[in-house]
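Ops channel
N.P.: pipeline sanity check, posting one input/output pair.
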């Protein structure tokens, strides 16, 4: 065998090996690449909302995006109505969300991490209406945003006059138009939407009646946990809490966090 022929065969074999190694490497990269995380965010300002320009913003919206980024994953974060969000989690159409942990959510999701914020669920009546007990609710017309699950004693009340609304903003419009006596929901979201609707938290409303205190949690669909486990999601979320990222995002929206005068 001549040296020239030997070199030619050596180069051919080497090239073939390089092609095989490259192909195997590309296959490994694609095999390890995971699909984008599907995130659902509630349309409850300041936690999740769209600006007039159609840009999605909000505390929970940014928190969820930060989790995906910390996990090194691409993501699709959609702001969807409350009822659709819970259905998406229940049927695995969304991978995770940041929502209140309730007996209902525990039935359809896997709680991952407590984000460290408590929320009061209240009935907020019109000025001049004093609510001191659940019995007082029987004589009032109440509006509750569609998809909002209020548990505890409120859920046990019979014959309540409830007017469903599309969302918190719609609840405030019903209240402003005089069609209901009180609005039901989480404190900060109600107050935020009241101000946006042109209502005064002091002159238009009386003292809120507390129904429950709930905590915000990162919650994943059962299908996501079965497919990928929960450790990566849990580790990413907890690290963002520990290093202050969640708090910095929260403080960006602090001026929007209107609270009740208690």
């Amino acid at each position: 065998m001549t040296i020239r022929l030997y070199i030619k065969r050596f180069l051919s074999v080497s090239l073939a090996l390089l092609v095989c190694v490259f192909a195997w490497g590309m296959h490994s990269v694609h095999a390890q690449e995971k699909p984008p995380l599907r995130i659902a965010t509630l349309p409850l300002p300041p936690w999740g909302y769209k600006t007039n320009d159609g840009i999605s913003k909000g505390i929970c919206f940014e928190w969820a995006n930060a989790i995906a980024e910390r996990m090194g994953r691409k993501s699709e974060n959609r702001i969807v109505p409350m009822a659709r969000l819970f259905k998406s989690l229940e049927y695995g159409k969304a991978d995770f969300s940041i929502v209140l942990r309730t007996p209902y959510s525990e039935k359809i999701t896997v709680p991952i991490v407590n984000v460290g914020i408590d929320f009061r669920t209240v009935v907020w009546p019109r000025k001049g209406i004093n609510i001191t007990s659940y019995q007082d609710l029987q004589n009032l017309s109440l509006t509750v945003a569609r998809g909002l699950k209020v548990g505890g004693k409120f859920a046990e009340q019979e014959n309540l006059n409830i007017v469903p609304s599309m969302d918190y903003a719609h609840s405030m419009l019903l209240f402003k138009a005089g069609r209901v006596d009180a609005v039901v929901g989480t404190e900060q979201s109600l107050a935020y939407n009241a101000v946006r609707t042109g209502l005064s938290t002091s002159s238009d409303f009386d003292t809120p009646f507390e129904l429950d205190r709930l905590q915000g949690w990162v919650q994943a669909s059962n299908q996501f946990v079965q497919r990928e486990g929960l450790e990566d999601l849990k580790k990413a979320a907890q690290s963002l809490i520990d290093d202050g990222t969640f708090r910095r995002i929260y403080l960006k929206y602090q001026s929007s966090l209107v609270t009740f005068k208690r």
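N.P.: looks fine end to end. The longest strand covers residues 109-125.
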